[in-house]
Amino acid sequence: MAEFGASSVRARANAAALDRIAARLDGVSEAKIAAADKRALATVRRRVEPIVKRAIREVYSVPVRELSGKFQVRTTSDGAGEGLELFAATKRVPLVEFNARWSGRKSAGARASILRGKSKVYKSAFIATVGGRREVVARQFSADSNSPSGRHPRSHLQRLRGPSPLEMTKGLDGQNVVRIGDEIVRFAATERARQLQMARKGKI
């Protein structure tokens, strides 16, 4: 079962107090304001994952299939009201998924691009099929190996991995999580205003 960790991305349904006050002054009932908040929160919930995936793939060269099903948007509730919090999978993505390639035994090692536009050589690593899937692997070295080279046999291959969806959500120095949070907050504010306007028109 996949494990998920908190990403620090949060959004609240009732954060825009001025919008709510304006709606009350326009004669919108508390019940309709609450309904508008609920509808806005549901729309924001649907938009969170696409926003996160796009932000991640602007920085990391990870295919979208490796991000599918790796996020959970959970409802939270405390003294400040109801809101949403994003959780992301903590399992690291296989390095082979980051545009990995290997030129053969005479090369220095396998090459992969975790960050877009930045390629790195992983010395002595190569691409092999392990357990039915392609992986970037490296032989483990040990003083107690029976091999003259000190390398373990094929059964001791180390599978190399890149960052997890949670790590990519947070990004380098926490930059991604700030961008994602800002975009979600902006969208939530716009959607909340739209729903309150529908309430004013009697459409809620």
UniProtKB/TrEMBL annotation:
It comes from the Bacteria. Residues 142-172 are annotated as: Disordered. This is Prophage minor tail protein Z (GPZ).
